[in-house]
Amino acid sequence: MSQHDDKRRKLLGRLNRQLAYTAPLLALVAGGAVLQASAGDDAAVADVTSPSEASLMLASNHAEGATEAQGEAEGEAQGEAQGEAEAEGEAEGKAEGEAEGGASAAVARPEGYSPAYSEAGDNPREMLARGEALYYDTSLSSNGLACASCHGSDGQDMGYNPTFEQPFPHRVAMAANQFGMSDVHADEMVQICMVSPMAAEPLAWGSEALTSLAAYMVEVQKRVAGEPHDL
Ligand code: HEC
Questions:
Q1: Ligand 1 mean position to 163 CA, how many Å?
Q2: What angle, rounded to 10 degrees, do the helices at 125-135 and 208-224 form?
Q3: Is there a smaller number of Cβ atoms within 10 Å at the N or the C end of the chain?
Q4: Residue of 151, 165, 221 with the most ligand 1 atoms within 8 Å of its CB, for mutation
Q5: How many Cβ atoms are within 10 Å of 223's Cβ, its own excluded?
Q6: CA 124–ligand 1 middle distance (angstroms)
Q7: Tens of pLDDT along 206-223?
């Protein structure tokens, strides 16, 4: 007995027992043409395609088709539900983005703003003295901290990343990560530390406090970079 005959008998046996195994039936339907082609005029082949077997195949195919249709329907429903969830996610993302945009608008220089300090240095002594005083002022924050709490006192600079060795404006990780700003000026960095670690409102643009703190930080930056400074 050839392998083909053996295989076919087993498949036919399953059909006759009307076992609705969709996977094997599909295999039989798919393999039918091959069986026919290789088995030639063998009478058994006729059995496979006899009306009763054919209708059985159709019936199970139909059942399979129905399952597929249901599967598709479920798939679509799921797809839609997921689609909706994604749409919601996008909406939330957008809302967050706008909220962040608002936050960065508060810490980024307003359009056309020109600061009253020089980022190159050479700022008035009184401005630097005022900045230094504010640097130690815990009343600027809502959490009892002063700039000096994190960045050190008496010239012991600390809490800075190596980015601080570059003159302003430059890239700062906190500014990029929390506010989406690629480069920051000294006054913008002051505002970021006001809003984030100091948990306070940003200082008013053009205010004496912001101007003098920024001017002071310009000199601190030079000190950290090991350059001549006015402190
Ligand atoms: C709770 C701690 C904390 C407080 C308080 C704080 N900062 Fe910062 N500040 C940081 C951290 C952390 C960084 C480092 C950010 C980075 O590099 O990503 C930083 C960075 C800076 C930088 C340098 C960033 C750079 O590389 O150019 C400046 C300038 C600065 N802060 C100014 C201030 C000022 C002014 C105040 C007070 C108004 C202040 N900070 C208060 C935590 C603090």
A1: 12
A2: 90
A3: N
A4: 151
A5: 14
A6: 23
A7: 999 999 999 999 999 999
